[in-house]
Design a protein that fits this description.
Keywords: Hydrolase, Metal-binding. With 266 residues, the protein is α/β, with parallel strands linked by helices. Helices cover 39% and strands 16% of the residues. The two termini are 33 Å apart.
Length: 266
């Protein structure tokens, strides 16, 4: 009889659809972080870029670990530094086989670290790039649902993921109808009734899970106050299983299949 491994005892295969492994907070111990992810059953990860140098770095990182994919793009917080020449640079990076998406892009009118006008310009340019490359978008929306919907409608491109979903029902319904996927992070586990109801209302074949690590630690005693990392996705996975009345294994399989379909991973 084969010996049962202590690692990943329930043999889940989990896809973390959004994190930032090139963040400086992972520099001291990335190998250990990746080992813990593996032990927790996280076998595939999309590591998301914030700007041009980071896009190059994420590609290099993907070459070091199996099951690691990346997006290339410019975060709305960095939109003040966006120049139109950046699009050509991002386009050149899309040749790399690990590049599965454009982003993260979108609009963040909550923090407004870049001007609204610059965020919109960078968002529009990245939508057109995604369209040209036939890649999904990784979209960040904060306090900007109507502006983001209007821009996406204008460009008539509805392929990708609304990441770290925390918005209202209206955006969720619109996104599902258009064909987007919706990704829930640790903030779902905060138990906000509105968000739980939205998660219940979305067809299961459109739901993804993510950590957004090193940010957004899920609210559990076990990990509170620490840096977030992909292995903690189990907290969100278990919570989603509970509210959807499915098993963690079913949620892992469904969200992994969804991520692979959305990111066109064969
Ligand atoms: Zn984001
Ligand atoms: Zn992010």
């Amino acid at each position: 009889m084969p010996r049962k491994s202590k690692e990943n005892p329930d043999s889940l295969l989990i896809f973390d659809s959004h994190c930032h492994l090139t963040d400086f907070q992972f520099a001291p111990d990335l190998n250990a972080v990746m080992r813990r992810a593996q032990q927790a059953g996280v076998r595939e990860i999309l590591t998301v870029s914030m700007n041009i140098p980071d896009s190059k770095e994420t590609i290099e990182l993907c070459q070091k670990f199996s099951g690691l994919y990346c997006s290339v793009g410019i975060h709305p917080h960095e939109a003040d530094n966006f120049r139109s020449i950046d699009i050509q640079m991002l386009k050149d990076l899309c040749i790399e086989p690990q590049v599965k998406a454009i982003g993260e892009t979108g609009l963040d009118f909550f923090r407004e670290f870049s001007t609204k006008a610059n965020q919109e310009t960078a968002f529009r340019a990245q939508i057109e790039l995604a369209k040209m490359m036939n890649l999904p978008l990784i979209i960040h929306i904060r306090d900007a649902a109507f502006a983001a919907m209007a821009i996406l409608e204008e460009h008539n491109y509805f392929k990708g993921i609304l990441h770290c979903f925390s918005d209202g029902r209206k955006l969720a319904e619109w996104a599902v109808e258009k064909g987007f996927y919706i990704s829930f992070s640790g903030n779902l586990t905060f138990g906000e009734k509105r968000l739980v109801e939205i998660a219940r209302s979305i067809p299961v074949d459109r739901i993804l899970i993510e950590t957004d690590a090193p940010y957004l630690i899920p609210r559990t005693e076990l990990v509170v106050g620490k840096r977030n990392e992909p292995s903690y996705i189990r907290v969100t996975l278990n919570y989603l299983a509970e509210i959807l009345n499915l098993t963690p294994k079913e949620i892992a399989t469904i969200t992994r299949d969804n991520a692979r379909r959305c990111l066109q991973i064969a």
